[in-house]
Amino acid sequence: MSLWVDKYRPTLLCKVDYHREQAAQLRNLVQCGDFPHLLVYGPSGAGKKTRIMCLLRELYGSGVEKLRIEHQNITAPSKKKIEISTIASNYHLEVNPSDAGNSDRVVIQELLKTVAQSQQLETNTQRDFKVVLLTEVDKLTKDAQHALRRTMEKYMATCRLILCCNSTSKVIAPIRSRCLAVRVPAPSIGDICTILSNVCKKEGLTLPQELARRIAEKSGRNLRKALLMCEACRVQQLPFTPDQDISEADWEVYLRETANAIVSQQTPQRLFEVRGRLYELLTHCIPADIIIKLLTKNPYVGLQIQPCTPGMYRLWIMTIVIQQEKVKLDKAALSYGKFRT
């Protein structure tokens, strides 16, 4: 049994539930034949990946849904072995180069070279190029981004790139200028409520509008998160009630407890405890910038550190430093100690 977020994901641009004008423009882009490199950006849970997969379906047909996981072994010039996982069909390749860390430049060059030099298995698709989908492009190193810029020029004839990221602020200008930018805004509260109601109706459930709005607001306009929260509510209690509790992710509860620990006591012992809690979050793949961002927005911290005070100023400066430096796990955990002192 699949999750609602996968079960009811649209597969065609004509079936998307919101931003339909944008979907129509993407269909026209496919039909015109001159398909450029794309830079698709927007907040998490806005529907970027869904629209990209619908676009590939318009390009190549249902064959893009026959996916396989491949493990690529790449040898760097330093003789270092790099292993990276990709998701591929006969027509496209999806990869997150930032998974390779500082070796992302080598991964980009080798993968694009391999894809560009391969031929289509089915010529009846009437497309003489393959598509490479690169996710989290904003997390690539500057060297990797410059290598990407050179490579996308070299293999333009046989390869098209779709770059996906949350923000273009960390993508270098030469890449942005070579791509058609497509911004996917977050869905509105009303859009999310409508989608939740439609999904529940297909499941034979009745979702109260009050509960749908509470889920939409608590999700932060993240549609994927809203669908997961709604499905968790179904598991927790049926039938739905307007005032029933909405389940939170365990890491969010853990982070809120960490915020309580920060403001309740400022001692070396508490600093050591909070550092351990931050390590726990980081080892469970919660990004450091998300941790610091949610800590600064936490109401418990806000009551103790008011805006425009030196404490809040240091907190936000440390958040900026973390985002700019792409800190490693150990540096991210030590950042708490820096802005507390």
TrEMBL record:
<protein>
    <submittedName>
        <fullName>Replication factor C subunit 3</fullName>
    </submittedName>
</protein>
<dbReference type="Pfam" id="PF22534">
    <property type="entry name" value="RFC_C"/>
</dbReference>
<dbReference type="GO" id="GO:0003689">
    <property type="term" value="F:DNA clamp loader activity"/>
</dbReference>
<dbReference type="GO" id="GO:0005634">
    <property type="term" value="C:nucleus"/>
</dbReference>
<dbReference type="Pfam" id="PF13177">
    <property type="entry name" value="DNA_pol3_delta2"/>
</dbReference>
<dbReference type="InterPro" id="IPR050238">
    <property type="entry name" value="DNA_Rep/Repair_Clamp_Loader"/>
</dbReference>
<keyword id="KW-0235">DNA replication</keyword>
<dbReference type="InterPro" id="IPR027417">
    <property type="entry name" value="P-loop_NTPase"/>
</dbReference>
<dbReference type="InterPro" id="IPR003593">
    <property type="entry name" value="AAA+_ATPase"/>
</dbReference>
<dbReference type="InterPro" id="IPR008921">
    <property type="entry name" value="DNA_pol3_clamp-load_cplx_C"/>
</dbReference>
<dbReference type="GO" id="GO:0006281">
    <property type="term" value="P:DNA repair"/>
</dbReference>
<dbReference type="GO" id="GO:0003677">
    <property type="term" value="F:DNA binding"/>
</dbReference>
<dbReference type="GO" id="GO:0005663">
    <property type="term" value="C:DNA replication factor C complex"/>
</dbReference>
<feature type="domain" description="AAA+ ATPase">
    <location>
        <begin position="34"/>
        <end position="186"/>
    </location>
</feature>
<dbReference type="Pfam" id="PF21960">
    <property type="entry name" value="RCF1-5-like_lid"/>
</dbReference>
<dbReference type="GO" id="GO:0006261">
    <property type="term" value="P:DNA-templated DNA replication"/>
</dbReference>
